[in-house]
C-alpha cells in the first residue's frame, strides 16, 4: 500500500517541486536579467517601468560607450581598472596559496618547539576581521596610498587559508610522507613533490574563495585609492554609477564587465566554489 | 629502486635499521632530522605568520593604542594621550554619540532581521534543492550565483530596481498590480524603508552562501532515518521536526552565528548607495561606515580606532557565543 501511495504521489509532487523551484528561481533571477537586458538597451529605456525588461533595441553600444568614455587620463582607462583587478587577484591568490599552504604544512606535519603556540596565534588572528584593522592600517600606510603593493600585501597571508590547509594536511596519512622521507627527501621536497600534488582539492577551494573575496574587495581600496591609475574595478563601479547625469545603460554594461570574469570562473569551477564555501562550515 | 609506496618502504626500512641502531651513528641521523624539522618548520611558517603579525596582529594592537590618543591625520598637532575620552565621547557626547549610537542601532536592526530571515530562507531553499530531480544542479547554481556578484554591483542593480521615480522597477510593478493606485515611492530615501531595502538586497546576495552550507549539512543526514520515519508513517511535517531539524541543528546554529558576525561587517552596499544612490544616510549608517567616514572624511583616526575596537568587541562576543552554543551540540 505504501508503495502504491508513493507511486501516485510522485508525478504530482515532482511537478509541484519544479513549479515552486521555477517560480522562486525566476524571482531570484530577475535582478540578473534586468542587469543583462538593461546593459544591451538604449540608456533611456532602462529606467522605464516594466518595459525595462523587454528585450527591445538590443545592441552592444553601451559596452563600446563604456570603453570609449573611460579612455583618458582624467577618467582612467577601463582596461587599466580591469588589469589592476586581475593583477591584484593574481598576486593575492598565488602568493596566498604559496605562503599559507607552506605555513600550514610546517604547522601540521613538522614537529618543532613552539609550533602549538604559533598555531594558536594563527587561530586567534583568524578571529580578527579585516574591518577591525582597516583604520590603523590606513593610518600606518597613509604615505603609501595609491600604490599597488599596499593594495595586495595585507591579503596574502590569510589565517583562514592556513587553517583550511592545516585541516586538509592533517587528514593525509603520515605513512605516505614517511616513505618519502626515509628515501631521503627533505621537508621541502616532501612538501612540494608529494604533499602539494595530493592536495589539489584544498588548493582549488582556497584559491576560489580567495579570488571571490579579492575580486569584490571594496573597503580597502576606498581607504587607499584616490588615483584612477591604480583603481580596481569595484571601486570604479561606485565612481561610475555616481556620475551626473547618470547613464544607466552604460552603468549596467560596466556592471556586466565587472562580474563577467568571476562568472566565467564560477561556470568552470563551480564544484570547487561550492566545496570551498561548504568547507568553511568546518570552522564551527 | 626508491619506492614511495608506504607498504614496501616501511618494512624495508625496518629490516635495514636494526644492525645500524645497534651502534651509535643511527641516533644522530634521527636527531639531525628532528633538528631539520625544527628549522624548516619555522622557516616554512615564517612568511605567512610574519604577514599575519604585520597586517593583523600589530595593526590590531595599534588600533587599541590609537583609541587612547587624540590623533588626526594632517594635523600639525602631535598626537596627545586622551585616556578613555574617545570612548566617553562615542557613548555620551551629544554631538558624536548620536550618529554612532544610531549606527549601532542600525547594525542591530539589520542583524535582528537578517539572521532569522536569511537563515530560514536558506534552509527552505536547501530543503527544496536537496532532491534528486533533473536539472537540480542548474537550480542550485542559480540560487548560488548572486554570491559571486561584487557587492558594489549588487547595490547598483538594486538602486535601479528601487528607484524613486514612478519608472522604477518596483514602483511600476506595484503600480500595475494596484491598478494604478500606487505612485512613486522613494524606497532608498525614505527613512522608513531605507534599511529594509538594504536588508532585501543583502539577503538576495548572501542567501546562496548559507544555502550551500545547509545543503551540505542536509546531505549528511543518513537516508535510512527518513526511510524509518516513512515506515512509521511520519508525516512530512513530522519528518522535518524529528529527523531534519535535529540532523542539522549544529549546521543551523553555525550558519546563524556566521550570519550575525557577517551582518556586523556590512559596509560596501551602504557606502555605495549613500554616495550617489540617494540612500537615507541616518537610517542606514553602520558601525563600519561610521569608522570609515570618521577616519577618512574627518581625519579623526583616534575616534575611528575607538569605533573599530567597539566593533571588534561585538564581533568577538558573537564568535565566543557561537563557540559556546555549537560545542556542546557537537559532543552529543
From TrEMBL, chain A:
Cellular component, GO annotation: plasma membrane
Has keyword ATP-binding? no
Q: Which terms under GO biological process does the entry name?
A: transmembrane transport
Main subcellular location: membrane
Which keywords label this protein?
Cell membrane, Membrane, Transmembrane, Transmembrane helix, Transport
The ABC transmembrane type-1 domain covers 82-269
The record's section on Gene3D superfamilies has:
MetI-like
Q: How does it sit in the membrane?
A: Multi-pass membrane protein
Q: Which residues cross the membrane?
A: 15-37, 77-105, 117-141, 147-165, 248-269
Q: Where in the cell is it found?
A: Cell membrane
Judging by the UniProt lineage, the source's domain of life is Bacteria
**Record family assignment:** Belongs to the binding-protein-dependent transport system permease family.
Q: State the name under which the record lists this protein.
A: Sugar ABC transporter permease
Lineage, uppermost ranks: Bacteria, Bacillati, Actinomycetota, Actinomycetes, Kitasatosporales
Amino acid at each position: 500500500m505504501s508503495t502504491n501511495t508513493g507511486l501516485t504521489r510522485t508525478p504530482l509532487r515532482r511537478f509541484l517541486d519544479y513549479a515552486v523551484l521555477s517560480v522562486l528561481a525566476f524571482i531570484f533571477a530577475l535582478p540578473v536579467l534586468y542587469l543583462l537586458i538593461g546593459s544591451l538597451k538604449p540608456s533611456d529605456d532602462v529606467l522605464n517601468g516594466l518595459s525595462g525588461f523587454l528585450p527591445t533595441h538590443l545592441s552592444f553600444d553601451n559596452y563600446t560607450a563604456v570603453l570609449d568614455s573611460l579612455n583618458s587620463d582624467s577618467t582612467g582607462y577601463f582596461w587599466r581598472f580591469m588589469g589592476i583587478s586581475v593583477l591584484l587577484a593574481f598576486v593575492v591568490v598565488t602568493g596566498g596559496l604559496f605562503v599559507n599552504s607552506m605555513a600550514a604544512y610546517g604547522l601540521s606535519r613538522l614537529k618543532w618547539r613552539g609550533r602549538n603556540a604559533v598555531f594558536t596565534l594563527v587561530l586567534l588572528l583568524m578571529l580578527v576581521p579585516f574591518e577591525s584593522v582597516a583604520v590603523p592600517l590606513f593610518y600606518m600606510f597613509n604615505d603609501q596610498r595609491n600604490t599597488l603593493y599596499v593594495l595586495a600585501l595585507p591579503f596574502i597571508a590569510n589565517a583562514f587559508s592556513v587553517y583550511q590547509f592545516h585541516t586538509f594536511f592533517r587528514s593525509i596519512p603520515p605513512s605516505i610522507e614517511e616513505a618519502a622521507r626515509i628515501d631521503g627527501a627533505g621537508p621541502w621536497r616532501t612538501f612540494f613533490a608529494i604533499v602539494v600534488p595530493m592536495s589539489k582539492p584544498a588548493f582549488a577551494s582556497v584559491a576560489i574563495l580567495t579570488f571571490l573575496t579579492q575580486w569584490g574587495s571594496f573597503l580597502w581600496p576606498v581607504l587607499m585609492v584616490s588615483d584612477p591609475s591604480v583603481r580596481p574595478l569595484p571601486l570604479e563601479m561606485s565612481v561610475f554609477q555616481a556620475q551626473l547625469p547618470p547613464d544607466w545603460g552604460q552603468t549596467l554594461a560596466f556592471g556586466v564587465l565587472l562580474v563577467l570574469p568571476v562568472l566565467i570562473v564560477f561556470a568552470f569551477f563551480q564544484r570547487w566554489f561550492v566545496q570551498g564555501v561548504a568547507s568553511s562550515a568546518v570552522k564551527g | 629502486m626508491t619506492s614511495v609506496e608506504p607498504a614496501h618502504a616501511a618494512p624495508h626500512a625496518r629490516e635495514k635499521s636494526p644492525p645500524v641502531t645497534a651502534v651509535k651513528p643511527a641516533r644522530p641521523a634521527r636527531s639531525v632530522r628532528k633538528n631539520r624539522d625544527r628549522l624548516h618548520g619555522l622557516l616554512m611558517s615564517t612568511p605567512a605568520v610574519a604577514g599575519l603579525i604585520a597586517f593583523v596582529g600589530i595593526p590590531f594592537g595599534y588600533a587599541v593604542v590609537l583609541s587612547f590618543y587624540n590623533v588626526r591625520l594632517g594635523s600639525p598637532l602631535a598626537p596627545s594621550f586622551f585616556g578613555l575620552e574617545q570612548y566617553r565621547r562615542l557613548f555620551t557626547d551629544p554631538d558624536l554619540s548620536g550618529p554612532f549610537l544610531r549606527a549601532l542601532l542600525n547594525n542591530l536592526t539589520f542583524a535582528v532581521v537578517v539572521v532569522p530571515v536569511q537563515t530560514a530562507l536558506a534552509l527552505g531553499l536547501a530543503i527544496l534543492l536537496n532532491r534528486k530531480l533533473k536539472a537540480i544542479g542548474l537550480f542550485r547554481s542559480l540560487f548560488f550565483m548572486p554570491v559571486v556578484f561584487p557587492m558594489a554591483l549588487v547595490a547598483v542593480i538594486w538602486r535601479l530596481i528601487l528607484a524613486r521615480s514612478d519608472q522604477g522597477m518596483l514602483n511600476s510593478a506595484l503600480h500595475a498590480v494596484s491598478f494604478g493606485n500606487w505612485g512613486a515611492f522613494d524606497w532608498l530615501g525614505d527613512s522608513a524603508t531605507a534599511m529594509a531595502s538594504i536588508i532585501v538586497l543583502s539577503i538576495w546576495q548572501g542567501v546562496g552562501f548559507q544555502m550551500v552550507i545547509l545543503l551540505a549539512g542536509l546531505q549528511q543526514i543518513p537516508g535510512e532515518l527518513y526511510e524509518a520515519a516513512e515506515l512509521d508513517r511520519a508525516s512530512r511535517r513530522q519528518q522535518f521536526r524529528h529527523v531534519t531539524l535535529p540532523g542539522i541543528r549544529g549546521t543551523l546554529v553555525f550558519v546563524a552565528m556566521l550570519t550575525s558576525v557577517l551582518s556586523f561587517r556590512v559596509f560596501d552596499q551602504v557606502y555605495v548607495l549613500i554616495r550617489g544612490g540617494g540612500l537615507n544616510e541616518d537610517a542606514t549608517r553602520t558601525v563600519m561606515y561610521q569608522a570609515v567616514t570618521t577616519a577618512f572624511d574627518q581625519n579623526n583616526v583616534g575616534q575611528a580606532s575607538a569605533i573599530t575596537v567597539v566593533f571588534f568587541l561585538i564581533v568577538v562576543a558573537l564568535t565566543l557565543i557561537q563557540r559556546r552554543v555549537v560545542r556542546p551540540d557537537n559532543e552529543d
